[in-house]
């Protein structure tokens, strides 16, 4: 339902910038505000506050533009506040919830006091500029934050309650601890990762490469590609010592050749670097992702130091964020919907260029269907300054075969999912 306002004067100090007539929606008012203020779209403009003082029925109001106040916006009585800055947007939207037919279009109406989940669904489905179905937000009633465990008490037997909807900043992927990442990936009843051997691909060196690969590389057989990989790595190690690299991007110089070769051998895959992802709760970029038809079949995080396990939290958060982004965009999954792709595992790789760890999270544990997380053993790769091409190819072969088999298994699981979905 559109929230409407009565006659409104939009002012900058004493200067009237915009006047709107009766029954103007808040969305239309904000559109006019964008046109009246320099900077184009509101989220791109210089920071400012917009304060709307309105009567109880939200029918009349006077909007003023003032310099941005320090700190986040707060609900003050009957005040509609939107704070915009270079780094964040906070918007408090008053919503009236009634258990009878609404008198005004700015109200959400229910036949009976809604459950907390029903309230969330209704809020997310309201057409607002915030796109709340894609944003993590909190709900506030007066000075108290509303949660599932206190909603019944807060709403009581009241017929109408005013709520403030407060969007929250997404948490950076790199800030997740191992425990936080594991909870995000597997749920609150998670279990520690179990160390298991990952399968190796049966790599036939005499097999011919795909026509597309042959056309752009002039390489014909798999063995030619592996020789090329060894030469590439040997050249990268000729003038520098990999074990002394002090920057993450330098480590990635040793990672990308393996990743691209394994992707080519697995077939029909794309590799993307610095892959941007944003879930409702977290955001950031992933060093590398391997994709099949937009689905991230594996993420890879490249780290500087040997303490790879210290970065598991970021890897788990990246695996979760990439998956949720696909589910939301391709399958229209909402935040609280169950994962419809549980038969397709999530996979990830941690590496510093001279050692690798592989991870897979799948549903199949006990009790039935619980997520299980497995981790490979530590795989060292002894690349060093002056290494020969033949030796370099030999040193990385186990990692390449592990990557290739992981990618092939993920492709099969994804293909099976879409085949079953087409039949349903």
Describe this structure as you would to a colleague.
With 424 residues, the chain is α+β, with helices and mostly antiparallel strands. The longest helix has 35 residues, at 389-423. The protein is built from 9 helices and 22 strands. The model is unreliable at 1-5 and 37-106 (pLDDT under 50). The chain has helices at 26-36, 116-125, 151-155, 178-186, 211-217, 222-238, 248-266, 312-330, 389-423, and strands spanning 4-5, 8-12, 15-20, 24-25, 48-54, 61-66, 79-84, 89-91, 95-98, 107-109, 137-141, 144-146, 160-167, 171-172, 194-195, 270-278, 282-292, 295-302, 346-351, 355-365, 370-375, 379-380. The strands form 4 sheets. Strands 14, 15, 16, 17, 18, 19, 20, 21 and 22 form a 9-stranded mixed beta sheet that branches. Strands 3-2-6-5-7-8 form a 6-stranded mixed beta sheet, with helices on one face. Helix 6 packs antiparallel against helix 7 and helix 6 (222-238) crosses helix 9 (389-423). The two termini are 34 Å apart. The protein is elongated, with a radius of gyration of 27 Å.
């Amino acid at each position: 339902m559109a929230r409407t306002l009565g006659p409104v004067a939009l002012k900058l100090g004493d200067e009237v910038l915009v006047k709107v007539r009766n029954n103007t929606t808040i969305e239309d008012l904000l559109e006019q505000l964008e046109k009246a203020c320099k900077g184009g779209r509101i989220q791109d403009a210089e920071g400012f506050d917009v304060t709307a003082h309105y009567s109880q029925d939200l029918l009349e109001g006077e909007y003023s533009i003032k310099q941005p106040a320090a700190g986040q916006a707060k609900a003050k009585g009957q005040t509609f506040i939107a704070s915009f800055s270079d780094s964040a947007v906070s918007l408090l939207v008053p919503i009236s919830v009634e258990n009878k037919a609404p008198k005004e279009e700015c109200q959400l109406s229910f036949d009976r006091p809604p459950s907390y989940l029903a309230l969330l669904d209704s809020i997310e489905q309201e057409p607002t500029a915030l796109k709340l179905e894609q944003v993590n937000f909190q709900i506030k009633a007066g000075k108290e934050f509303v949660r599932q465990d206190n909603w019944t008490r807060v709403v009581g037997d009241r017929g109408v309650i005013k709520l403030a909807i407060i969007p929250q900043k997404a948490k950076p992927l790199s800030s997740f601890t191992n425990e936080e990442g594991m909870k995000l990936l597997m749920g609150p009843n998670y279990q520690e990762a179990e160390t298991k051997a990952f399968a190796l691909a049966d790599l036939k060196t005499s097999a011919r490469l795909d026509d597309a690969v042959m056309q752009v590389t002039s390489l014909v057989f798999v063995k030619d590609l592996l020789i090329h990989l060894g030469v590439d790595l040997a050249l990268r190690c000729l003038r520098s010592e990999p074990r002394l690299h002090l920057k993450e991007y330098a480590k990635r110089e040793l990672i990308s050749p393996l990743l691209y070769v394994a992707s080519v051998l697995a077939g029909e895959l794309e590799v993307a670097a610095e892959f941007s992802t944003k879930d409702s709760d977290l955001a950031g970029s992933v060093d590398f992702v391997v994709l099949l038809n937009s689905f991230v079949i594996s993420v890879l995080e490249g780290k500087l130091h040997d303490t790879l396990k210290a970065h598991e939290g970021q890897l788990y958060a990246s695996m979760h964020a990439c998956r949720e982004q696909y589910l939301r965009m391709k399958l229209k999954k909402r935040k609280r919907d169950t994962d419809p792709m549980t038969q397709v595992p999530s996979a990830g790789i941690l590496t510093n260029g001279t050692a690798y760890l592989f991870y897979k999270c799948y549903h199949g544990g006990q009790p039935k269907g619980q997520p299980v997380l497995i981790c490979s053993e530590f795989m060292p790769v002894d690349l060093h300054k002056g290494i020969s091409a033949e030796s370099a190819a030999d040193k990385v072969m186990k990692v390449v075969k592990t990557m290739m088999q992981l990618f092939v298994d993920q492709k099969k699981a994804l293909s099976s999912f879409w085949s079953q979905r087409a039949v349903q």
